[in-house]
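Researcher: Next entry in the queue.
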Amino acid sequence: MKIFFSLFFLLAVMLAVYPFIFPPEDSEPLTGLPWQIEMQPDGSTRVFGMHIGSSRLSDAIENLGNDMELAIIATAEEDGNLEMYYGHYKAGLLSGKLVLQTQPDVQDIKNWRENAVKSEYMASGKAKKYFLSADDIPRVLDETITGATFIPAVNLDDAVIRARFGEPSQLLESAGVTHYLYPDKGLDIVLSESSKEVFQYVSPGEFQQLMAPLK
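Model: Structure for this entry, 215 residues:
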């Protein structure tokens, strides 16, 4: 019985990692994969079907569907951030969690928080999630997507990251966490020994905002 469960677990892991190593060869190639980063003429990038720095939250709903959560995330000490969260993002066999970030005016954030229909603490207990009023949604959906964060369902390793994304321009390592930096793609991949991998995307011209916390 133990052998059966061990083999079952190994098979499940292999199936999860498979799309990262061997992308499907369909007659209609898959789009929206995390390594499919398209460079735009203006130096910006397009990923997950979104043009970072140009596409709006309304475009995300049109391309990715409305199975998402739209809220302001804030601790007691900050104004907060407007985020669109897809808890079940999927492209072929690949799945994970996708968060789209924006940078609204601070006063808009404050107004939307005051108008929120309800709020609740997040799992960490350190931040609150403010659910927006229906009256504010049209204005909120007009906000520009300035970044994206993808958390794959499967754990990756150094070899898979290099195979799919290429050699990083720089590696930063500290306390069991390695940052694979791709400034020309506006990408920081965070590989951790104790938690899930995180892919952070911004427009290449804004890459320093990802670097600032690391410094």
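Model: Helices lie at 2-21, 57-64, 106-114, 137-140, 158-165, 208-214.
Researcher: Noted, moving on.
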